[in-house]
Specification:
41% helix; 26 helices; single chain; binds (3S)-3,7-diaminoheptanoic acid; 7-stranded mixed sheet; binds zinc ion; Neutral Protease, domain 2; alpha+beta; 30 strands; Immunoglobulin-like; 5-stranded mixed sheet
Length: 896
Amino acid sequence: MKTEHAPTIHRADYRPLPWTVERIDLHFNLDPTATVVTSRLNCVRNPEVEAGPLRLWGDTLECLLLTVDGAEPAAAALRELEDGLEVDLAGERAVVEIHTRIDPQANTTLSGLYLSNGGFFTQCEAEGFRRITYFPDRPDVMARYTVTLEADRERCPVLLSNGNLLEQGELPGGRHYARWEDPFPKPSYLFALVAARLVVLERKAQTASGREVLLQVWVEEGNLDRAGHAMDSLIHSMRWDERTFGLELDLDRFMIVAVADFNMGAMENKGLNIFNTKYVLAKPDTATDVDYEHIESVVAHEYFHNWTGNRVTCRDWFQLTLKEGLTVFRDQQFSADMLAEAAGEEDAASARAVKRIDDVRVLRAAQFPEDAGPMAHPIRPDSYQEINNFYTATVYEKGAEVIRMLHTLLGTEGFRNGMDLYFSYHDGKAVTCDDFVDAMAEANGRDLDQFMRWYAQAGTPRLGARGEWNAADGSYTLRLTQHTPPTPGQAEKLPLVIPVAVGLIAPDGSDLPLQLEGESQPGASTRVLELKTAEQRFRFVGLSAEPVPSLLRGFSAPVLLELEEDDERLAFRMAKDSDPCNRWDAAQRYAERVILALAADLGQGRAAAVPEAFIRAFRSLATDEALDPAFRAQAAALPAEGYLLERMSPADPAALRAALRLLYATLGERLAADWLALCERLPVAGEYRYHPADAGRRALLNLALRYLAAAGNEAGLALARQRFGAAGNMTDRFGALAALVQSASPAREDALAAFHARYKDDALVLDKWFSLQAGAWRWQDDAPGTLLRVKALLDDAAFSLSNPNKVYSLLGTFFRANPAEFHAADGSGHVFWADMVIALDARNPQVAARMARALENWRRYTPALQASIRPQLERVLATKGLSPDVSEVIGKALQD
Ligand code: B3K
Ligand code: ZN
């Protein structure tokens, strides 16, 4: 059992174990309340390590029997520890057999073996295997698994585990069994089993080398018509990894299983990926374009882990970004390639930019705040109390940015060479981030020592830039500076290697060919400068007029760019920058400036109006018919509220919301004719298909509706009602509903009721219905607060605190995506938050900890809000039996 006072684990304390496991033979006698697990471990002494006992971790297990080479060990040779057992073994090898009993039905944590809709499912990453049986549950212990499952045939007609099916058959008493073998050694976190009532969509495919493989997507009865997109995505992923990295599927069979109760998105268990239904099931009537997109990228992500994570895994959990950052980078590249392919050659660059912008949005909204708060950590953390708290935007998204910078610095070919070398050295091993970067360095003959600082330093670096034009000699000197603000426990920061992609724009808007001082002729119009010290100058020569710099093109590094640009210059770049990411970014910067100024005025009770120049710049971008709709949907979307709050000091959610409302309403009203014209032009004819071009049109149209509805535009509201009623797919229906809900129109209630009536038996669609209401703004000052609605929805028949998707939809949306309502001045939201975190923690600490993190940056808020939040943080921390997950989050939030 874990105790209340979770100790801190340090990366520096890593030691290999004296005994590891070569083979494990597992037998499960599955029963909802009393499953018996028999495990035979072939243990081997590690000759490189000083002698010591076999270390077995165990959590909530009942040990029935333990033998060593067939005999019970002497009492002194077996010691019980707080979190497991220690057994003295003699010689070089030993067979340890352990029988344990577990209660899957009582397991509400969804870690280990648990029940969902009557079926058995597992989740072992990071440390769930120890909730199934005693084992050296660390990723550096890689064993070969054979698994026998025995269960009731009626209840669980399908029995799955990792690898290949060896045999199956009937047993007395209405039971049956299946025996599986995974030919590849793997760490315990990649073990999985499924025993449930499921149906399958299957396809045969050929790998690049001509092997035939069986692909399966397992879902509950009635959902087969929603499995096709996941299957297509899997096939696309296989092809992409073969093409891009020469990596093939290494098993004869690859399975995806959908389960309704799951803590996160999906899990890459070897050959048996287990997925949250949200990331598998899609058909036009129930899933939006965005759902289709997410399914494609999560299927790809888990599939890509087969090489980056499974074949080469992490030595210890501090190295998590080794597999996660790299795999996120791979799935991002995959999605960008898929979009570019669908868009065709001419529109490929814009399609890629749309994906890149999505990724940058996530980074800014989720990772930048993390880097600025009490949980700030390097992509490779130095310590943790609960590893589950470190599946963070930093490890994943910033981790992916670090890999992307390597890709930028080394080029596509150099990166590929590094990957090849990495696999040639480390296939079948558990390694570290240093091993990865060393392979990249060696393959490219480059010194990446300084680059490693990205793995060690927390905090978002500030990149300063200042340009100096010298008309006399036609030179432009760019002075770049960097500094990273201190983060908890890390006051000193050293300069990083920052790739800065730069372009210089001529007054007519064209890109200038770049010639650095000392070069004989001008080169490409976008160049990657490497900033390595606190300050560096780059002198461009041969220019005929003062250029406008376009920095960090494609968002070439995960930094905050501090560049002084007046409104005019931002408007110029919004209109002219040839780099679509920077064009979008210029619009974001301008919008941010306008919003923060409005918030400052409105917060002080002063009158405020949206500047005309901004409306003009915004309008020309949003209505530029030369740009494809998907890009315009990005350009016309305002910066995320979470990101804006971080940019505000102190953060005042009410003032920010007032500013956003005003801006939405103003843009809705002033551009009404444009939005209505778009709504006429954009509808996609014919049957729904998930295609990026169609999706772009639908996204822009739905955004137009949103602006119109926010402004209370009658024609716009009528259109939203009409489109809601007549919609032929979920994207249109939900887009229209969202526009109505984010307006003062009374039609919102009827529409919500109609939506509910239509989908009342569809769990995934109801998640959308919950989340829309939890995220609703107040469009009239005297309207009831959203908290009342959220509280009422807790009692809805479809809601359950035990289902993570429901919790994330209703509570997650309210706490994370509706700051103005959550932080209502009377503090009611904060009391509610504490009640919910405490209630959730008793069932599922991982889910509770995620909700708990919604208040970690509380010190950035106004003094009045801080005074309201602090006692609630303290109340949660004082709760008896609080999990290490939540206590780490709150403990750090309260630390001085
Ligand atoms: N590796 C899993 C995440 C496991 C989270 C454990 N708390 C999914 C993924 O990143 O692919
Ligand atoms: Zn992953």
